[in-house]
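Researcher: Here's a chain I'd like modeled. Treat it as a single chain, no partners, no ligands.
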Amino acid sequence: GYNVYTSPAPTQGFALIRLLENLPDPELNNVDSISVVEAMEANARLCNYLRDSILHENSQPDFYRGYSLDDLPSSRVPELAAAPADGDTIGISCTDSTGLSVSWIQSLYSHFGSYLMDPASGVVLQNRGTMFSLADERPNVIRAGAMPPHTLMPVMVTDQRDRIRYIQFGAAPMADADRQEICRLLPKTRL
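Model: Modeled as a single isolated chain. Structure tokens:
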């Protein structure tokens, strides 16, 4: 077996776990591939909805289990504070000879982040606050001291000897992309 590690709220790490938990049993020979694809697409839409509308910094690790596909709104447009991201993310990871692994992620979330630069370092500040909601009834409403929900989602998969087999950093569609990649790299295995 393999172990899948990802990050807690306010990241979208829950989405990968939900998608992996809902994989069809690889031992079933009569699984209709079109039905599987449709079910996975619907689960990915639900995860995106939960990330954009429900997730907040105090969400419990298994909060998503209280929601089903019936909870999806008819509209796919979330109420976000700003337009979707148009920037880029980078990730660096390494493992030393003792097996210690480190992963680092940096994302501006738009081409010029917040458009603010620290004059001493020249570092452009990110703009993750765009994932807050402006609707007072939403748990991810913008408020003082709150951490914004976001699309970053570090993932690491290790084998039985704790060797890293896969590592990724995240983006809006990354939970589903990671699920596909993990299933491709580790076929017919139990996670």
